[in-house]
Amino acid sequence: MCEKHRTTPVVEVPCAADGPGQSRPCRPADARRAVERAIDACCRARRTPCDAHAVSDARLVASELTSNAILHGGGVTGFHVDLVGRGVRVCVSDRSDRLPVVRPPVDREGRRRVGGRGWPIVCRLAREVQVCDLPSGGKCISAVVPLP
Fold it and tell me: Are 90 and 16 in contact (CB under 8 A)?
């Protein structure tokens, strides 16, 4: 997790262990459910209805960050969700020091690429996105999705 934004997580998703000393990545479905539970708990506490579009946006951001960690970051090493002001923060850590990049939708020959849309989706839906290096290696990506 990004040290400068340490808060008490509302929901943590432990990455499942296959055996002693082994772990496998958290699944995007786990991340989506964790975000939905956190937002639902917030709405119940405030006694206000949850905005379906905001929940959908936050679920998509969590899913994309988790998928990108699995596909490009060597696996998910940490995941948590917390509520900040009028938003939900999703943090996903992975093993890679490489920064996310935006790839053009077509290659040099003009052919459409498969994939490459996750990071732009995250950047469009979140009002605050930060990438922090972790002391033990890897990185943490934090994205705050607004809740009306």
Answer: no
Render pLDDT for 91-114 as a digit per residue (tens, 0 to 9).
Answer: 999 999 999 988 888 888 988 887
| pTM for the whole structure | 0.81
Distance CA 26, CA 5 (A): 22
Locate tokens 């090493």: which residue? 77
Half-sphere exposure of 147 (CA within 13 A, CB side): 27
C-alpha–C-alpha distance, residues 82 and 88, integer Å? 6
Instruction: Find out whether 141 and 91 touch, Cβ atoms under 8 Å.
Output: yes
Q: Which residues make beta-bridge pairs with 146?
A: 87
Token pair of 126 as six digits: 């979140």
Please name the residues in contact with 58: beta carbons below 8 A apart, sequence gap of 6 or more: 35, 39, 88, 90, 145, 147
